[in-house]
Amino acid sequence: MNSNTAVVIMFGPPGAGKGTQAELLAEHLGLYHFETSKIIEEALNSHTDQEYIEIDGVKYLYKDERRKFSSGELNSPPIVAFWVKERIRNLAQKGQPTVFSGSPRTTFEADQIYPFLISLFPKEAICVLELTVPSQTSIDRNVARRICSSCRLPHPKNYDKITCRRCGNALMLRGSIDTEPVIIKRLGEFALRTMPAVERTKEYGFAVNVIDGNKDEQSVFKDICVACKLNI
After folding, report:
1. Does residue 104 have a cis peptide bond before it, meaning omega lies within 30 degrees of 0?
2. How far apart are CA 13 and CA 77, in angstroms?
């Protein structure tokens, strides 16, 4: 990737296209797609209900975190920040440019993640985006989208094949996670808890580039590349 940008952070409600655009950046420009929800899901699935994680003397039960995830509620910020920072450190040590499609999600996470990123990269190497779509578009996209049963790549509703465009395995709906009531809950969580994190981003001295996520996939991709000065 011929660019000084080392980190791309994408905010946006469910269905704004963060995952799709992150995959395009990974495919065409070699960025690592840091999918926060996937990291959370993998961690929750690898532990039993009786297990817990302890952070700063506080115990968080995986049972409770799994309930939050399946209902559309955001997971406990200290846990998410811990997992995210751990993975960021590993990627930075490898010199791997990264695109985040889901972090930070709260002001707590922002206050944990931004100082950590600034300690690793110059500010001008970090590009922040906000993808915007109407609420109904968010609902429609999520209810209709399918993901790969193997690599978890999301596929938009206008994708007309039954196999993954990346690895060729079968596609599936995400069941209870992508129902309309859960998406409405997630939209509420985004407005209440993530939008303040967008404002906190500005307090750290970052410009937030607003991108119209309601355009077609390739137009959005070009807008992102222009905003972050990425060469395509």
Report:
1. yes
2. 18
Which tokens belong to 70? Answer: 């399946």
The overall pTM is greater than 0.70: yes
Residue 114, burial from CB neighbour count under 10 angstroms (0-12, 13-18, 19+) = buried
Structure tokens at 197: 């994190």
Which residues, including other chains, have CB under 8 Å from residue 25's CB and lie 6 or more apart?
A: 8, 31, 33, 99, 221, 224, 230
Per residue in 148-201, pLDDT (tens digit) is 878 777 787 778 888 898 888 888 876 667 788 889 999 999 999 999 999 999
Q: Structural domains in the chain?
A: 7-134+181-227 (3.40.50.300)
- As a dihedral over the C-alpha atoms of residue 215, residue 216, residue 217, residue 221, rounded to 10 degrees, the angle is -50
Rounded Cα gap, residues 62 and 68, in angstroms: 10
| Rg value, the chain, Cα | 17
